[in-house]
Recover the amino acids of this structure.
């Protein structure tokens, strides 16, 4: 894909397929600046803002909820968890329209919040954190309680650091999902300035003719931030955690 | 002990924010969608109450059952392959390997790619004169119709799915493996156990929670997958790759039969709900240690 | 001091009133390079009408209907474009407003209709059940395209051996198909079998040529049980199954395939295709658009005519201004013709078409005999059912008769018969 963005259009679709272009061109990339109606920088910024806040909100909600489900035996724990988990058992296409109407009633259409809130919802993230919090020994929590720490303090200073790898995994997955989301932004965004990168990529698919090199060029540029996030986080991954000794 | 009960109740407060926000932005729209399954609605005009008509139609709809079975086929074969493959890869990456980061990243890259890019790449692979076809022609002497054969196309979709999300689950398994304290392995090594023994008696049992996560979430996600079908085959050839999520999308957004689409969504939902409940009953998630 | 603050606040008040622009939100599909013309036209209109702000939203073609529908329920849209296959749904569901003659400087709707070529609004999807709702943005009809270089290489004469009947079309296809062992490396003919609309449009012509009436839902339903209908259907599917001139696996998009020299003929190109071709390796002087072949004893019907119209939403507050904007948008056909894009406005200098569109006579003549597509709100489902019927034969090995019988059941379900 990366290589194809350097080919002239005719070569992208030639058969038999040549993996390497005969004529290396960076035209596709420079051409992007010719599309004056498309403010690509703005779209990148939009994607960044939305992704950052959506992931932040997701991490907050998922870690707290996952912790609550895993480490506490309150009434209806399992039932509430199933209810939350059930939200990923329905395909997004089915709730898109009711959600859109709800957002319209709340006055959130065509806004950053309108993108961020729905895109921060991931019951999978709750599930993930719950499973990981299970593996934290109860004894550590108990001893902290005996020492007089509040529940929130325990959560924040002990449990969360121990779930670091899971949180990083969540950040990676969720930012990838939010960044590449097309259907929801398509429906809720109506002004060009609010577009995100996937919409920008889709714009290249003309009805009669698609300039593939340019479309692939913007796709490549669109992938780079995620790749950077991934490489950065995976370094931290392999550091692992050291378990404090059990008394 | 009253004190303990009080503490346990506090757990609810951790869950509350999520419950509220999910309640408003997910559960309410879900209930709304279920509500529409009893109506005829095209998103613009007044909705018309039709009772169980959509459900009756659905049970007799050949297209629906084809979709249902196609989805099961796609999901379970994908997940079976993905879980085994990603677990093995995670184990592999535990060892010291040259260029580990490079390989890890390249396995993960498909996860990051947009569907547009994936479609273009795989289209080349799948063309009858494309890379994969040429390889198969050279080795096996047959020209496989990747996307134009009713029997092969579903497997091509599975192939793309495996390629796309193995990296995802590899990360989950790596995270899970990292959570196992090395003390256990060291103690076992001192006792003179073999690699396989350690694998089966320490690693896998301690990874139980991770396996549950991977299996349940994997099934749920693959069940709902549709971008590759939408972009690469549009459900064809002859509806052989028309998974439920795609059918739901078409009914709602192309045919504007929102009510019928919602009825199919309900069937979809109930299937996954039953599946998850069975899973949880069989494999109780547990606190370790 | 009081006087000053009074004057200042009055100034702001007046300033705000004059700044309160009327906003018209317009949704249009994107197709480089036409987007720039649209954006520029919007800017020009705003310069002429400083109290109006046009907000243009460009959306990928495939997403258009979804986007417009959600916009109609959401924060609103005032004007939008729509192809004639989708527009009946919008007109039938009461989302569009009728033409307002005064916005065009006319006193009756008929006078407005007469600003375009006869039948243009009907063929481009702006007319529904007796009323006019849209004005044309583009009108096209399909011609058959052949690669004359391939013909010459195969010893054929591009002047004499042009296929005039479907029989000849098939034979030439056979001569021009290239194979490597058993794998086709160049199609004699190609069509996109994934997207149902394309087989539908070609079948439309074939059916009409066999005397069937695909311009109405009843006619379509009836054709599925007639001999002529079966013959039309089989002619099409045979290209992929029995005639050996088409392998759907070679590539998806026949317009791209033709441009890359991987198919020698295709049937879904309009005048705009010349511009598209320039982006590919096959050159203009190596191809030629020709009239659609006919059946030897069939009707004289040419390639299908279709188009796009622009509409005013019923919910728009100032409909007159919206129509003024649309009239302005559609008053510059000379800007589009240079790219091969035809707008059927009478004000367009006829010589321009001939100047910018090579072989324009073919399209112009064929247009007289072009089949008109059904105006039905059920179009999406019908098209999908027809596409499935074609795919059953090509990919599942179902017989033509059986597939048509299943199609008949599907159509009856869709039309609630």
């Amino acid at each position: 894909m990366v290589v194809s963005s350097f080919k002239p259009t005719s070569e992208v679709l030639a058969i038999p397929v040549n993996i390497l272009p005969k004529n290396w061109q960076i035209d596709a990339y420079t051409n992007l600046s010719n599309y004056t109606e498309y403010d690509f920088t703005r779209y990148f910024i939009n994607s960044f803002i939305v992704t950052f806040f959506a992931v932040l909100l997701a991490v907050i909600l998922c870690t707290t909820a996952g912790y609550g489900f895993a480490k506490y035996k309150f009434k209806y724990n399992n039932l509430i968890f199933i209810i939350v988990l059930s939200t990923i058992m329905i395909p997004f296409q089915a709730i898109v329209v009711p959600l859109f109407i709800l957002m319209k009633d709340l006055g959130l259409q065509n806004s950053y919040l309108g993108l961020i809130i729905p895109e921060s919802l991931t019951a999978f993230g709750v599930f993930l954190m719950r499973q990981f919090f299970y593996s934290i020994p109860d004894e550590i929590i108990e001893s902290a309680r005996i020492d007089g720490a509040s529940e929130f303090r325990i959560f924040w200073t002990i449990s969360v650091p121990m779930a670091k790898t899971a949180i990083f995994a969540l950040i990676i997955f969720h930012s990838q999902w939010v960044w590449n989301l097309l259907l929801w932004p398509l429906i809720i965004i109506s002004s060009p300035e609010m577009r995100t990168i996937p919409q920008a990529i889709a714009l290249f698919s003309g009805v009669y003719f698609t300039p593939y090199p340019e479309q692939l060029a913007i796709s490549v540029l669109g992938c780079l931030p995620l790749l950077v996030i991934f490489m950065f986080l995976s370094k931290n991954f392999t550091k692992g955690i050291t378990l404090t000794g059990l008394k | 002990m009253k004190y303990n009960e009080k503490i346990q109740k506090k757990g609810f407060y951790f869950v509350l924010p999520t419950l509220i926000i999910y309640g408003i932005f997910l559960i309410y729209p879900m209930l709304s969608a279920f509500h529409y399954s009893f109506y005829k609605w095209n998103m613009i005009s007044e909705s018309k109450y039709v009772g169980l008509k959509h459900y009756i139609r659905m049970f007799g709809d050949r297209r629906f059952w084809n979709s249902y079975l196609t989805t099961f086929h796609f999901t379970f074969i994908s997940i079976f392959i993905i879980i085994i493959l990603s677990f093995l890869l995670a184990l592999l990456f535990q060892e010291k390997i040259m260029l580990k980061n490079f390989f890890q990243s390249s396995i993960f890259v498909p996860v990051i790619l947009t569907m547009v890019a994936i479609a273009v790449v795989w289209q080349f692979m799948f063309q009858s004169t494309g890379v994969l076809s040429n390889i198969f022609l050279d080795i096996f002497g047959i020209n496989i119709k990747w996307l134009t054969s009713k029997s092969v196309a579903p497997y091509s979709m599975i192939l793309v799915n495996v390629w796309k999300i193995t990296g995802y689950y590899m990360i989950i398994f790596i995270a899970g493996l990292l959570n196992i304290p090395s003390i256990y392995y060291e103690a076992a090594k001192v006792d003179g156990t073999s690699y396989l023994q350690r694998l089966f008696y320490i690693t896998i049992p301690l990874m139980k929670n991770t396996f549950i996560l991977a299996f349940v979430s994997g099934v749920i996600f693959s069940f709902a997958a549709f971008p590759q079908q939408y972009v690469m085959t549009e459900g064809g050839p002859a509806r052989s790759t028309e998974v439920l999520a795609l059918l739901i999308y078409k009914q709602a957004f192309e045919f504007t039969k929102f009510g019928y689409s919602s009825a199919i969504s309900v069937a979809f939902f109930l299937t996954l709900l039953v599946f998850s409940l069975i899973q949880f009953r069989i494999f109780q998630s547990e606190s370790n240690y | 001091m009081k006087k000053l603050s009074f004057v200042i606040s009055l100034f702001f008040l007046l300033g705000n009133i004059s700044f309160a622009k009327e906003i018209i939100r317009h949704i249009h599909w994107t197709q480089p390079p036409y987007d720039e013309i649209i954006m520029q036209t919007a800017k020009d209109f705003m310069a002429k009408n400083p109290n109006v702000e046009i907000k243009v939203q460009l959306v990928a073609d495939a997403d258009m209907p979804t986007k417009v529908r959600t916009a109609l329920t959401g924060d609103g849209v005032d004007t939008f474009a729509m192809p004639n296959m989708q527009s009946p749904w919008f007109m039938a569901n009461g989302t569009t407003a009728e033409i307002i003659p005064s916005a065009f400087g006319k006193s009756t709707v008929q006078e407005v209709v007469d600003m375009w070529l006869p039948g243009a609004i009907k063929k481009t999807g702006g007319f529904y059940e007796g009323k006019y709702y849209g004005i044309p943005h583009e009108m096209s009809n399909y011609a058959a395209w052949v690669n004359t270089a391939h013909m010459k290489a195969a010893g054929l004469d591009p002047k004499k051996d042009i296929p005039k009947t479907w029989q000849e079309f098939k034979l030439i296809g056979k001569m021009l198909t290239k194979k490597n062992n058993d794998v086709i490396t160049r199609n004699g003919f190609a069509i996109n079998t994934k997207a149902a609309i394309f087989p539908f449009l070609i079948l439309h012509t074939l059916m009409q040529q066999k005397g069937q009436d695909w311009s109405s839902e009843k006619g379509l339903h009836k054709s599925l049980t007639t001999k002529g209908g079966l013959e039309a259907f089989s002619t099409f599917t045979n290209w992929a199954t029995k005639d050996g001139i088409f392998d759907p696996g070679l590539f998806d998009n026949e317009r791209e395939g033709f441009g890359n020299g991987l198919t020698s003929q295709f049937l879904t190109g309009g005048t705009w295709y010349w511009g598209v071709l320039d982006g590919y390796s096959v050159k203009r002087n190596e191809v030629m658009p020709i009239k659609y072949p006919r059946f030897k004893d069939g009707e004289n019907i040419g390639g299908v005519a279709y188009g796009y119209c622009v509409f005013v939403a019923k919910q728009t507050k100032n409909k007159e201004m919206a129509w003024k904007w649309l009239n302005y948008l559609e008053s510059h056909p000379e800007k589009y013709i240079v790219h091969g894009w035809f707008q059927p406005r009478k004000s367009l200098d006829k010589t321009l078409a001939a100047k910018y569109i090579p072989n324009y006579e073919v399209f112009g003549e064929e247009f007289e005999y072009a089949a008109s597509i059904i105006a039905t709100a059920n179009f999406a489902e019908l098209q999908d059912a027809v596409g499935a019927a074609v795919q059953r034969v090509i990919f599942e090995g179902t017989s033509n008769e059986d597939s048509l019988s299943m199609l008949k059941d599907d159509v009856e379900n869709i039309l609630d018969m």
Q: What stands out?
A: Chain B has a mean pLDDT of 85. The CA atoms of residues 1 and 70 of chain B lie 53 Å apart.
